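Worked example (supplementary).
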Amino acid sequence: VTQTQPDFAMIEEARSRIAGYANLTPLLRAPALDRATGARTFIKAENLQRTGSFKFRGAMHFLSRIPEAERPSGVVAYSSGNHAQAIAEAARILDMRATIVAPSDAPVDKLRGVLHRGARLVTYDRATESREAIGIRIANEEGATLVPPFDHPWTIAGQGTIGPECVEQARAMDVRFDRVLCCASGGGLIAGLSLGLHHYDPDLAIHAVEPAGFDDIARSLATGRKQRNPAASGSLCDALLTQTPGELTWPIIQHHVQSGVAVTDGEALSAVTFAFRHLRLVLEPGGAVAVAAALFQKLDLRDQTVLIIASGGNISPQVFARALDPLLH
Amino acid sequence: VTQTQPDFAMIEEARSRIAGYANLTPLLRAPALDRATGARTFIKAENLQRTGSFKFRGAMHFLSRIPEAERPSGVVAYSSGNHAQAIAEAARILDMRATIVAPSDAPVDKLRGVLHRGARLVTYDRATESREAIGIRIANEEGATLVPPFDHPWTIAGQGTIGPECVEQARAMDVRFDRVLCCASGGGLIAGLSLGLHHYDPDLAIHAVEPAGFDDIARSLATGRKQRNPAASGSLCDALLTQTPGELTWPIIQHHVQSGVAVTDGEALSAVTFAFRHLRLVLEPGGAVAVAAALFQKLDLRDQTVLIIASGGNISPQVFARALDPLLH
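After joint prediction of all chains, the assembly is encoded as:
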């Protein structure tokens, strides 16, 4: 029987399952961000995770949980982005067949990231076809396991492995966090992170950061009821466009996350520029929103010790060139 | 009395002195580089070190060794680059006065990196003035300690702290290296790294990587005698232009380093592009030469486990834009 709620024990189990496959990403001092905020900031550089985002944690954990007997039938996932690349890589490692269902207009770079890991790609027409229907059909026909992007206990526990990792790294530096900034979309990362961190320190203040116009979690927390974003596209933060919190992630977020803030596309892009210049990290806009929230002082962080999750770095060269542009003149 | 030769004990002492100040930089799997080389590659991302290069290790260690009585007189260093920024940051941390002697035509970004850390900047005219003379005059007048960029046991031992760090990170992943690629210029990093690594595994093959036309260490190793580069400028790898190995670094390099290889500016720039795309790291050309040596197969690495040092990330946005350019069309 599959456990229906992720908890700290499942996170620990996930850690041992992904050890040796996932990168131990660094927890970096950011003196330039300290100067900008008056805080003592630490960046968890999860853009350096295998496949360029935290998604590999959940993907590797999920696939490692699939029983031996079901492995030959492979996995199916629908995503054109970081989840797709993470599933393709985890499947490659475990020698499983992976099918990625992606829209035919997905960025070529991300499709290449799926194909060069040996996954099968099935594209669909956004206007006329349903990715869920295609995914379910393939799962039924081939006996493949459908891997949801965030709303599953194994996925949440996998993303949650980042929590104890940050705590151990901080302890090695004699550091104790006062506040945490983490991006949120479907909520798999922030739910898992919260479970992981609050195990050690139940009083830690955790905040969600979302793109402006896509701040369903901030509004859900403010109103106490799940809210929905009006749009499903139209932000530079393509990794953060899920319309509403998940069935599993929402109760965890409601219990653990204090509030949410939103940043504009321009602020996210400025954070990409800042990360290039001062952190020597390549971030994607959606992966930089928590840095942006600190940089543009969406919360008062003065004199606090702040953990900031930089969640991904799969940015197109075109968008990165836009981020460099203000430095060139 | 100052110890005249760095050794493993001094590296261990350096580690404890820089702990809590230096970043623990990650050792990253690089599946894309594995595919390109047929090797199992690990990148030590030292561009994520405080101030953006390994130089902070040596600077922090050196300054922490200056006796209390001499600290109020401050330090002097001549450099327009990574060493200058590292000295400025270490001095700021220890509340010491730092003077950086830099050419008046040094890159504005690097001068800003010195100034915003609170160091004093003394510029000179490359054509008519000697930086050594200026540095020595300030040291004499003010009683300041002159901090050499590489040819000092404290500096070499400081850089050497990267060695045990890599070994511990590799052991945690059950990995044992067969071969190491590391950039070299004055030789402080590769000398310290070699002392650190050969303490654990005396048979490990270590190779120096230099820019083409500036491969004095490769030629010195090949001939058994210190060689000199014909030019002192003219490579994109501005961090790697020292003309000949140091008095202290050369005997260590001769004893520990197997051979040297050279990469062109174009190859170094391609490695910057590769690091952007596949590693999500910002590298400077001089910091990317060891990645370039693997990528362009300057050595046969097939079926080997290879440690590659990415040494710095202080690149101007203009040069980074050049590295992005091939991806934009």
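Two points are worth noting when inspecting this output. Chain B has 14 helices and ten strands. Chain B touches chain A at residues 20, 23-29, 31, 35, 45, 47-48, 50, 52, 89, 116, 169, 172-174, 276-277, 279-283, 313-314, 317-318, 320-321, 324, 327-328 (CB under 8 Å).
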